[in-house]
Amino acid sequence: MTSTFGGLNTARTALWAAQRGLDLTGQNVANVNTEGYSRQRVDLQAVGGTAVPALHSVSSPVGGGVDAGRVTRIRDVFLEQRAHTEISRTAELTVAAEALGGVEAALREPGDTGLQSMLADVWTGFSEVANNPTEPAARGLVLERLDILAGGLHTARATLDQQWTQTRDDLQALVADVNATATSIGELNTAIGAASRAGLPVNELADRRDLLVVSLAERVGATVRPAADGMVDVLVGGSTLVSGGATLGLQLAGADTPDGVGTGDDPRVRTDPGGTTIAIGGTAGGQLAALTDTIPGYRGRLDQMARDLVGRLNAVQAAGYDATGASGADQPLLDDGSGTVPVDPATVHAGNITVRVSDPALLAVAASSPAAVGGQPSADGDNADAFFRLSLAPDGVDAGYRQLVVALGVESAVASRDLEVQTVISTQVDAARESVSGVNLDEEMTTMLSFQHAYGAAARMVTAIDEAIDTLITRTGLVGR
Q1: Whole-number Å distance between alpha carbons of 171 and 178
Q2: CB contact set of 167 (below 8 Å; sequence gap of 6+)
Q3: Gene Ontology terms, cellular component aspect (predicted)?
Q4: Rounded to an integer, what distance in angstroms lies between the CA atom of residue 75 and that of residue 113?
Q5: Torsion angle, CA of 458/464/466/471, rounded to 10 degrees?
Q6: Contacts of 261 by beta carbon, 8 Å cutoff, 6+ apart
Q7: pLDDT, tens digit (0-9, with 9 covering 90-100), for 282-325
Q8: Which among 13, 230, 317, 459 could disulfide-bond with 65, CB atoms 3.0 to 4.6 Å apart, if both were Cys?
């Protein structure tokens, strides 16, 4: 009798295990489109027989059925760590490519609205003045084109400054968001730890936490390491951002204008409290690189171009004579907008370069002091030709600007190619991770059918045992009556 009723218990555990499997399969299917959800699996373990028989027991039990009390999240810790690394790298390269694209947009090269086209118009204007030095319209056209060039430099400089400011504002917002995310991870850690100690399920809580960790990996290059009671520690740049339920904040410090870069107070991310500067990756790492290197670098080269332009044009202007016979040294062609004489090239940059000469007659296009004949200027235009020859100098403004544009194009192309390669790598890692932890409907369908058949078989087993017991109870003792 004991063995027969023991079979009912075995069948009961089989029914429970099959029902548990079906429930989990339904949970997986229901969350097939839930971001961050990891598929779950019931761990089935056979319940063995009594290892030490009871007193006077001579039976040989075959086991107690199946235990289906444990549910496991399907995760590959190595793929998760690899995914964090690749996500961080992809985000950093994305920002780098976007920053270079912003610089290209500021310079507008190649194109009719770029600085190269404006420079070419200026040199063409000087060439026309050299051919017609007494023509006021030609002189006026040169000054107009110089003013357009100065305006183009102003626009490019202002665009770069705006890009820098916007990038810093974005980084400031990102840091605040990272702090909020870290706090949420700490709260989930606390909940997971308490639930784990109480023996309660934590799979869904862990999914939410891991999704936040991926977000931190993308934004600041965070990595994780396991801790006690199902909790994790989150590290950024070697500093522990989250430890259990405790969190460490981040703070953006340093210059808040592009002019402050290079003065020893570059933008940086540091711990709060503590004030320790940390090396970060991800989106924040790319933004910091743009703030401290990419944008200031090209901004500085643009300023140097403006200084070279002022210095070279003013030098040629000073070597010639205007239509009144006065030396061009008394009237610089370009300055920094301050109106001082002599012009200090060190104070000039692309944002303040100004055409100082407004009267076409003051353009020093003559190589020697002309003698006014009948009130008309001399036909000497040799100095105008000297202006034009500035465009041909191998180390001139044009050559320097072309080198800047070429360097920008190469750097941008390399960044784009690196991003393409990294995107492929990241996609492959994500696919491998998804193949392990993601929900596959075909696989779940197979699992559902397997548990469905197991449930039916267990139910049939109960029916068979019920029939056996019925026979034993209703027919025992009837023979011989």
Answers
A1: 10
A2: 99, 287, 290, 291, 295
A3: bacterial-type flagellum hook; extracellular region
A4: 54
A5: -170
A6: 255, 267, 291, 292, 296
A7: 999 999 999 999 999 999 999 999 999 999 999 898 888 888 88
A8: 13
